[in-house]
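User: For a reading group we're discussing how well predicted structures match intuition. Take WD repeat domain 49. Before you show the prediction, I'll give you the sequence so everyone sees exactly what went in.
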Amino acid sequence: MAWREKSKKRLNMTSFNIAQGIHAFDYHSRLNLIATAGINNKVCLWNPYVVSKPVGVLWGHSASVIAVQFFVERKQLFSFSKDKVLRLWDIQHQLSIQRIACSFPKSQDFRCLFHFDEAHGRLFISFNNQLALLAMKSEASKRVKSHEKAVTCVLYNSILKQVISSDTGSTVSFWMIDTGQKIKQFTGCHGNAEISTMALDANETRLLTGSTDGTVKIWDFNGYCHHTLNVGQDGAVDISQILILKKKILVTGWERSITVFRPQNFNQFFIQPEEWKGGIQHHDDILCAEFLPPQTLVTGSYDGQIVLWNNSTENAHHVLHPDYQRLLKSKLDTKPQKLLSAGRSQPSHPVADHSTTGVCNFEIDTEGKNAVMRLCFLKARKNTAVTGGANLVSCGGSGYVRFWDTYKKQLLAEFLAHSGVGSIIMSTDKMNRYLTTGDLDGWLKIWNIEEYCLNSSKNKITKAPTLIRSFQPHEDRISSLEMCEPGGQLLIISSSADCSICVTGVCNAPVWIFGQAKHWHIENCLFLPKRDTNLVESEIQKEISLFSKEESCLDPTEHSLLNKKNKDDSTYNVGPSEDINLDIKYKERSTCMKETQKPYYGEVIKKSFSTFRSLNIGALEELPEVNKPAVLLDPEKYFRREPEEERPQIPEAPSLFKTLKAVFDEKNLFPKEILDHERKAKQLCQEKSCEVKKNRK
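Assistant: Thanks. Here is the predicted 3D structure of WD repeat domain 49, as structure tokens, for the group to look at:
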């Protein structure tokens, strides 16, 4: 060791003499300790100023220690021995608090490198050409968990009205969107391999799961696997997206080319990939893809490139990049043809020459600052090709969201959605009114983009659209986002590495977690809290007096424009003086927005979703006399009871004995013995009745 004192130029040096030597050491600046990995199976702790003996010795390894590293924040120490046993020590008490074995590759002779990423709680250990990663389990919290392990993807099935989620433990769960109840669960879908992404087919009857084991499996909702797509060619790959088209299944994530499968050739259980005719056009791994009917396919890569393809011919025809405007100015003299073909002065017709398409040379983004994590076409904007404006949204590295015009090959707008959190993901609703973004810290933001970038402009827009809501539903990275409208109610579903899946509304709606003990009812819960009626009435009176003065100075045309402007603004902005019921169907709301005036009893009532512009209160008209209905005039006629009819009494049938006797008497056929017996029986009965009377007396 060597150090220099402030007043001297000469270095002071000292040395440690350790028996048998050491393999590695580490220094803790706060505790001023040096840890050594000894060949003699010991981990020694040294004070730099005391070289005679260690201040502490950690016993426990059965083989020589080959790596040590401090866990600075917790004042702990990692040590790794040659028999592949990892120990975690408490420095203060000099005790082993955890031992990990049998989790590493099987090899006898290996060279080991050891690194602990303290910021993310990950430990990397190399074994020759293999790398082992150990991630620290997050501390147990009281937060409700939807899955046992980190959730990787979430989908919404609009036919069954169910939410489908997957996790790193290869488990797929199905939930009811209306109540949050779990319906069923598939375990071990890809063995122990992580499910990184999922997708639903066009009919939403088949589920595709992509895993780190290099396969994509096609399932029905009974848990039966119909096909296995061999994406990684029997190797492990990182699948980031599965895009299902009419006649193709595209898989991306781990290389610069697109892996394609054609369902018409699915005649076996194991399916091999086919060749993509367009070849390789990206400089880095493709992370995402999106399709716009009839033929436009776009792919985004880690270096920020967005390549436009013709899906029918599978050929690329344009490349978009956020730095092309800068490169156009700086390298215009040296390479004018290439940059003009890729920049904003590019003509609208496609260029098929490979010298002017996706092979232009520029600085490759190795840090992922421009990485394209998600791509979304704004399909609800039908006339963008004629009127101009943005029809493609991208997001990713550095927290930026960018709006593109793919017809004019132009970047129209970019804004910083999340600052200082790295890459982000996003999702939009089918009508392209809202954009939802999520970051690595669990924060979610909802933006109003209905009126954003509707027209082309020469200057790039840097102003962000209206931010409706910003909140933190998760404690860790948001892994997936989905927007859906069950029953016309717009919902945002988010999954996270904190093992939870949340659902909420656009405005200040509550956040529910799938798996919580108390089930919810979406149709009854999506509303803002009711306010005090007295407070509302007082505010209305103030607004009436305020706006009546303003509107008296406006002519009818200005008044209608003001009313229209107020209508558009108040649809999405939630102010403190508003009472908005999110339970209203969005289709009904949109129709109400279009009707600025509605006739009612010969007068015109102007509709507004925000504060009242005007309020006319007149005397109620007197109701005309109403003739009483016949039910009230003659109630006996309708409600009296009808007299019961007298029914004829049916005589009782005679006994069998009397009938036979009558027959015999009539014909003198009754035997004498029977008559004598009857007389004796009557006498006995009379005698017995007399005896009973005497006894009673």
